[in-house]
Amino acid sequence: MSSLAVLGCMWGDEAKAKIVDFLGADADVVVRFQGGANAGHTIVVNGIKYVFHTIPSGILYPETKCVIGAGVVIDPYSLKEEIESLEKLGLSFKGRLYIDERAGLVLPLHKKLDNKQESGLGAGKIGTTQRGIGPAYADQTSRTGLRMIDLAYPDWLNDRLQSLYASHEIAVTTPELEAEIADLNRIWEYLKEYVAPVDSLLLEWYKDDRYILFEGAQGTMLDIGFGTYPYVTSSHTITGGISVGTGIPPRCVDKVIGVYKAYATRVGEGPFPTELKNDTGQRIRIQGNEFGSTTGRARRVGWFDSVAARYSAQINGIDSMALTLLDVLSGLEEIKICTGYWILDTKLKRFPIHPVALSSVQTEYLSLKGWDKDITDCRSVRQLPKAAKEYLEAIQDIMEVPIELVSVGSDRIQTIVVK
Fold first, then answer.
1. Residue 41 catalytic?
2. For the purposes of burial, counting CB atoms within 10 Å of the CB of 54, is it exposed (0-12), middle (13-18) or buried (19 or more)?
3. Which of 7, 29, 77, 254 is the most exposed place for a label (fewest CB within 10 A)?
4. Distances 282 to 271, 286, 338 between C-alpha atoms, Å
5. CA angle (312 as vertex; 227, 347 as ends), nearest 5
6. What is the pLDDT of residue 117?
7. Which helix (H) or strand (E) element contains residue 118?
């Protein structure tokens, strides 16, 4: 029996999908356990770019089964579009995609609510993607939301949908309601072949010694409970979210790899202690193509933050690290690692949980020499320039966690396995 979790350990966008894709060659099953279509994963294979929003990136391997767990909230319309667009690129879903019947639904109503809520917050906005994810999770918690299996029961669906609108005090006419139900009925006819009792299947596959890879969306610092609240996503992005989002027991998660960028990025609002609001930050942003694959928004850029990184490693109990986008730092004369936070004359002993405290910290840095060499063709650590190796060693020493993988480019083959 064997399973592996690959989790983003900062503010998301750590290139998790590439690591999942690289490791997915050996996986029998790849599982998405939380989040929604607000998470964009981009993978490049042989020069072809694939963009995923809800589908697990393991779908690129023709023999791999892909699972969307109960902890995911699904926009059924965009999921259908995603399947169809990937089929046009030659990918097959028949007998390979499994959607948990308990997964929540993101409806057009939720997108309208998301937009309204963000607009109403003004300067205090969270910076959501406005894909309706937060309102959909809120409805699940308040027990008014719809789930995938509800689509199989037309009368129940009608009653639940009316109740959902009523709970938000939104008037809906009979023709509008009938049109939406007709759309959902058509979506159900398309998706129903993929709907299954995922929890039972996963446990069965695990006992049958299938290799299962759990794929996280977003990152630890965006976890609804342990992230930089309230500037977070609406789901549990940490290791503990795997059991909550799939129904598989915690003891069935055998290994955890934490994915970190060689620098830090953040999308949306909220404190970001190492943010670079200068030419260096802009250079990294351009070289790293730091623009959201879902929204196109420019990401905020900063130095690697070992204080936040050590906190996320602790929360997830990671066994090793995958460090991505190391190639983006090529050409910088100096590279920094944040090693500590100070407030006035006091050095903090742990990561601060309140946004006011986090916004007021002063950062302490270790400065290292950069390197000029293009490292995108390097396939082993020994091929890296001395300064790049010293940078990796510094991160590993500070984190006290081994680096297992290093990504030096967007393509699958541009990955170094650290011996």
1. yes
2. buried
3. 254
4. 18, 6, 19
5. 90
6. 76
7. helix 108-121
**Nearest-CA neighbor of 311 among 342, 348, 359?**
348
**362 near 342, Cβ under 8 Å?**
yes
Helix (H, G, I), strand (E, B) or coil at 15: coil
Show the 3-state SS of 238-279.
CCHHHHHHHCCCHHHCCEEEEEEECCEEECCCCCCCCECCCH
CA neighbours within 13 Å on the CB side: how many for 307?
Answer: 23
Q: Return phi, psi of residue 356, to 5°.
A: -65, -45
For residue 5, the tally of other CB atoms under 10 A from its CB is: 25
Q: What is the pLDDT of residue 315?
A: 96
Q: Which of 21, 28, 41, 223 is catalytic?
A: 41
- 13 included as an active-site residue: yes
**Do 198 and 246 touch, CB atoms closer than 8 A?**
yes
Angle, vertex CA 366, rays to CA 362 and CA 367, nearest 5: 115
Q: Please tell me the predicted confidence (pLDDT) of residue 296.
A: 75
The predicted pLDDT at position 48 comes to 81
Tokens of 274: 């190492």
Catalytic residue among 13, 21, 139, 150: 13
Q: Does this model's pTM top 0.85?
A: yes
**Which amino acid, 342?**
W
Average confidence (pLDDT) per 10 residues, the chain, 419 residues: 92 91 91 84 78 88 95 95 92 95 96 78 59 92 96 96 95 93 96 96 96 94 96 95 96 97 94 96 94 79 98 97 98 97 96 96 98 96 98 98 97 92
